[in-house]
Design brief:
By secondary structure, this protein is mainly β.
Length: 321
């Protein structure tokens, strides 16, 4: 019942945001996972994408912080799935774990709100932790509906993903709040890497101009920014592409776009900090009814020419060293 109420809250919020024509024509498609926010000691039953039910309970949350800046270095949750206990590490490049007939991960815990950059609510989390649950044999996301957004290999250069802490050395004067990088920075060569749409969707903002009816969308800045593009997908999720050196002329608010279609060229514009990279993130309605980051690392199942996923390839390369 609790999961049903959370899902209904998200549906109502999304339909309030969307223009009437869009809201009436189609209902947002459900992803392959189910998300649930829980407090310590709270339990919920959720119906998975294959129709089976799973009972989950959050037993405890343990967050390890450093002694100098009090930054979260490791967040760990203890959960119970259908009566079996499991400990999960949260965020920071962690992938879903198969356990008790499901796959499960924990993208964020509430402790990340302490001593963090207050510019925006990155996660939309009001309880102690968020869990995402897939059927045991399910892919994490629909492979045919997702394309890696940069025309280069994953981990070709530096990345920041999964609540990795930044601004933790105290070198800023005066010291600033810690910024947990909930989005996805994909480093690359300025002016040489094409940025493509990760999904089929509708361009709702480009170059700081938003499509009529979407001015209250979860943009990082009102209407976006000059180096930003936002694409809305079939789930009602907003995909942000930022710091673009250039944006293709055909990418305009109100235009439809296909997965793999070029959006622009990777750069270091705007708030990039002078580092050439693509900032890519996905904002989705969370179980709280608020907008928050849809953790992305589990989506990186980009198949390379040998048929291996990027994650599997990385594991093979590390093991061979």
């Amino acid at each position: 019942m609790r999961c049903l109420i959370q899902s209904l809250t998200c549906w109502l919020t999304l339909h309030t945001l969307l223009p009437a024509s869009a809201a009436e024509s189609t209902s947002p498609a459900l992803p392959l996972f189910r998300a649930v926010d829980l407090d310590r000691g709270e339990a919920a039953q959720t119906t998975l994408s294959n129709g089976k039910k799973a009972n989950v309970k959050l037993l405890d949350v343990d967050e390890t912080r450093d002694a100098i800046r009090s930054a979260v270095r490791l967040a760990r949750v203890s959960v119970e799935v259908d009566g079996r206990k499991l400990t999960l590490d949260s965020g920071n490049y962690r992938l879903p774990v198969t356990f008790a007939g499901v796959q499960i991960d924990c993208p964020v815990t509430k402790g990340y709100y302490v001593n963090c950059d207050p510019f925006e609510d990155s996660w939309g989390l009001q309880k102690d932790a968020r869990l995402r649950i897939w059927p045991a044999n399910s892919p994490w996301f629909e492979r045919e509906k997702f394309t890696y957004p940069a025309r280069q290999r994953w981990f070709a250069t530096q990345t920041q993903i999964g609540n990795e802490p930044a601004y933790v050395d105290g070198g800023d004067c005066p010291p600033r709040k810690i910024y947990y990088h909930s989005g996805n920075d994909i480093g690359g060569c300025e002016g040489f890497v094409d940025v493509v749409s990760a999904c089929d969707g509708l361009v709702v903002s480009a170059r700081g101009k938003a499509m009529e009816g979407y001015t209250n969308a979860p943009f990082y800045k009102p209407h976006g920014d000059y180096d930003y593009v936002y694409v809305l997908d079939e789930h009602g999720w907003f995909y942000r592409y930022a710091h673009l050196q250039s944006i293709d002329d055909g990418v305009q608010p109100g235009k439809k776009i296909k997965a793999g279609e070029k959006i622009g060229v990777l750069g270091k514009e705007g708030s990039s900090g002078g580092w050439a990279h693509l900032h890519f993130d996905i904002k989705a309605l969370q179980p709280s009814g608020r907008w928050g980051i849809q953790d992305y690392i589990a989506r990186v199942e980009r198949t390379n020419e040998r048929g291996e996923t990027a994650v599997a390839r990385l594991a093979i390369e590390v093991a061979a060293r």
